[in-house]
Amino acid sequence: STTWRMFTDTVMGGVSEGTMSRELVSGRQAIRMRGNVSLENNGGFVQISLDLDPDGEAVDASSWRGIELDVFGNGETYAMHLRTADLNRPWQSYRQRFRADPEWRTAKFPFEDFVAHRTDVELNARRLKRIGIVAIGCPFVADVSVGGVRYMQ
């Protein structure tokens, strides 16, 4: 099985801080990311990510329409980032934004709605590698929980 991992902008000199824990959130087991997003030192993100394949290989998700997340948060806006085998720079991704309200809900992310970030390569759902839940772009306190991840019919 694959496991969630935590990253912050300190990998590139930023000063954002974050923690990741597995805990009960409003009655449901979840992975919870908390942090303080700071734009100091050209930073600006806190992220948890999940490799879709345990060996880090690309996954063919082309028979699905997208990805669904069960999310709970603090009313802030977060981003879902996808990485594929076609991307080789850490700042490249495919992105969609979403609000995480203080109640459990299912957020849907159709593949066709992802926007390419710093790449001209179109999203190829046959070559998915990783999903990321990211607090990014402006200073704020992040608190978002993921209770489930599924491919979308």
Defining traits:
single chain; 153 residues; mainly beta; six-stranded antiparallel β-sheet; 0% helix
Characterization of this structure:
The protein is mostly beta strands. 0% of the residues lie in helices and 56% in strands. It has no helices and eleven strands. Strands 1-4-10-6-7-9 form a six-stranded antiparallel β-sheet, with no helix packed on it. The protein has a five-stranded antiparallel β-sheet with strand order 2-3-11-5-8, with no helix packed on it. A hairpin with a 2-residue loop joins strand 2 and strand 3. The two termini are 22 Å apart. The relative contact order is 0.29.
Brief overview:
The protein is mainly β. 0% of the residues lie in helices and 56% in strands.
